[in-house]
């Protein structure tokens, strides 16, 4: 039975991960929150709504990492990089679901993960990871004749844009088409912005209410259009996916992995 600690334990994802870890038969060994958070000291299971676990929410990163086999972290890139550093020092595995990493932060994460096994994935659902696989084939098959536009919708509390999933979708399509995502992604059209270029990948963001997460990639040709969509109805497949990743990553060779590795989709 693996010992799982959860960082961001009082957050939208953290609470569901605690429930999923308990349901999967893992031992929840620790729960972390930001220093000074009002729920520090409260029972993590009671906060998550799955009954008392006898695990108080803590703000002591070192002690919580010390006591676990794997840390599951859904917070922000800066917090995740700090967690990765501490896990590397203590030789513990980590699963990171935070999104909004800059390319430089991702490179730093890969560097730190040379010491320990780490899963870093912007989306832990099976459905989205199957979409990543399909998108590569569709983009390669259609080639340059179809314009690609990506639209994502999320709740009004989301801090990063575009979503990590939309960025990964853009990267998958760009790579399949032999383009550099960082050069062809177009995040903004306004005023007399000129005709669309063939290479660009439009990235559109919608924020509102309680939308869990929706992504559509449009391949738009002359007289026809393909739409590949994923809609998340709850957060539970993300949380179950993160626990599955935690069970998979403990004991793996050091290095950075993603959900495609966990799900055997490569
Ligand atoms: N990979 C995936 O499948 C998914 C990824 N995500 C990503 O996960 C991240 C979290 O999302 P969500 O749960 O909605 O966000 P929330 O804001 O609800 O949760 C984040 C939690 O982390 C806490 N936190 C902040 N700083 C620290 C710290 N130093 N140590 C410990 N905890 C800290 C926050 O506290 P406070 O609020 O006080 O700052 C908050 O409770 C986002 O980046 C999101 O995009 C979300 C869903 C699925
Ligand atoms: O913040 C969220 O809620 C989500 N974030 C992830 C992302 O940025 O891709 C995954 C999911 O869509 C929910």
Automatic annotation (TrEMBL):
Its domain of life? Bacteria
What keyword terms does UniProt attach to this protein?
A: Amino-acid biosynthesis, Cytoplasm, Diaminopimelate biosynthesis, Lysine biosynthesis, NAD, NADP, Oxidoreductase
Q: Where does (S)-2,3,4,5-tetrahydrodipicolinate bind?
A: 155, 164-165
Pathway listed for it is: Amino-acid biosynthesis; L-lysine biosynthesis via DAP pathway; (S)-tetrahydrodipicolinate from L-aspartate: step 4/4
Q: Which positions fall inside the Dihydrodipicolinate reductase N-terminal domain?
A: 2-124
Q: Identify the GO cellular component terms for this protein.
A: cytosol
Q: Known EC number(s)?
A: 1.17.1.8
Kindly give the CDD domains that the UniProt entry links to this protein.
Answer: DHDPR_N
Where does it localize? Cytoplasm
Sequence positions that bind NAD(+) = 8-13, 97-99, 121-124
Task of the protein? Catalyzes the conversion of 4-hydroxy-tetrahydrodipicolinate (HTPA) to tetrahydrodipicolinate.
* Family stated for the protein in its record: Belongs to the DapB family.
Tell me the subunit arrangement. Answer: Homotetramer.
Q: What is this protein called?
A: 4-hydroxy-tetrahydrodipicolinate reductase
